Amino acid sequence: MNVYREQATFYRAALLLGLLRGERVIAWADAAIGDDPSAPSAFADIAITPPAEFTLLRQNLLLLASEKESPAVVAGLIDLIHRDLESGRRSFGDTMTVLKQLRAFVAVGASMNEVLKTLGVDVAMNPPGSRERAAAEERVRAWLREYEADAQPLLQSGSGQ
């Protein structure tokens, strides 16, 4: 159940931040049901939820999830933010918006909150196109790279035991 709890918490926060689609969450629930005969019944509720019903999906995930995100969940979310930026799915400006949302809506902890605030202010205080802004943006990218592959364990299917 511990792995399920971490994964459900991760998926719940990822939906809130727009980092994953409902179909991915439903596929995770389907895999858990198929792989583990003793999977909690909440997986059935998740599996039959319409993928576009984010509020209902998040509500059903809460049956398995923790209300507060662990450091591993936060790291996994940052990895997804990094992936979206690197793949071009999200622009740098949109990435900064998601990082602000991460800071506002997810239990990131005091030290990470300060890092996120500092990175955000550093970018915002320097005019676009300046050397200082380019350096600030590179600091954000470098920080995001530190979390590369942290989402992998949370995206894996399999037994939660």
Please provide a written account of the structure:
The chain has 161 residues and is mainly α. It folds into two domains: 2-68, no CATH class; 71-145, no CATH class. It has nine helices and no strands. The protein has helices at 2-16, 22-35, 42-47, 54-61, 71-87, 92-105, 110-124, 131-145, 152-155. Helix 1 (2-16) packs across helix 5 (71-87) and helix 7 (110-124) packs antiparallel against helix 8. It is elongated and about 55 Å long. The model has no long low-confidence stretch (mean pLDDT 94).
Put the structure in a nutshell:
By secondary structure, this protein is mainly alpha-helical.
SSE blueprint:
Layout: H1 2-16, H2 22-35, H3 42-47, H4 54-61, H5 71-87, H6 92-105, H7 110-124, H8 131-145, H9 152-155
Helix pairs in contact: 1-4, 1-5, 5-6, 6-7, 7-8
Helix count, DSSP H or I runs of 4 or more residues: 9
What's the total count of β strands? 0
Indicate the low-confidence ranges by residue numbers.
none
How many whole angstroms does the radius of gyration measure?
Answer: 17 Å
What tags apply to this protein structure?
single chain; 161 residues; mainly alpha; 2 domains
